[in-house]
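Chapter summary example.
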Amino acid sequence: MPQLDTSTFPSQLFWLVACFLALYFILSFIALPKITRVLEKREEAIASQINKASTYREQAEDLLADYEKTLAEARETAHQHAKTIASATTAEIGHKQKEFQDKLKDRLHLAEQDLYRSRIEASKEIQSIATEVANAVLTKLTGRAYSPNKLLETRKDT
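The structure predicted for these 158 residues follows.
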């Protein structure tokens, strides 16, 4: 094997050192700076994106807080409107009930008056009917007709 031939060691060592030095200079002055710049740009882009993401997250949190605050205010407003409407409705129902009760009282009073008038008229009619019935009974029993005034006087005496 030629690599193990000791007579070629100095030239192999020379080319080894020359290749390593050439590779070192190429890498250190050309490739590594480009790689370093790419890595720095990448790191800057990542940091920028992280900053943007954190800014967007903060904005989203602020928007969420505003949304929750607005939602709570809307709920409170709706609750207050519901209370107002309920109290207005309750007041209106109370007013309508009072009106209904007043009308019912008036109608009841009118009905009682009509009933009282009907009783008075009925008692007058009953008196005349009773007089006629008594006259008819007495006429059948005695065979003689009596005047209604005489029957009323007889009734008052007893």
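To summarize the output: The two ends are 171 Å apart (CA to CA).
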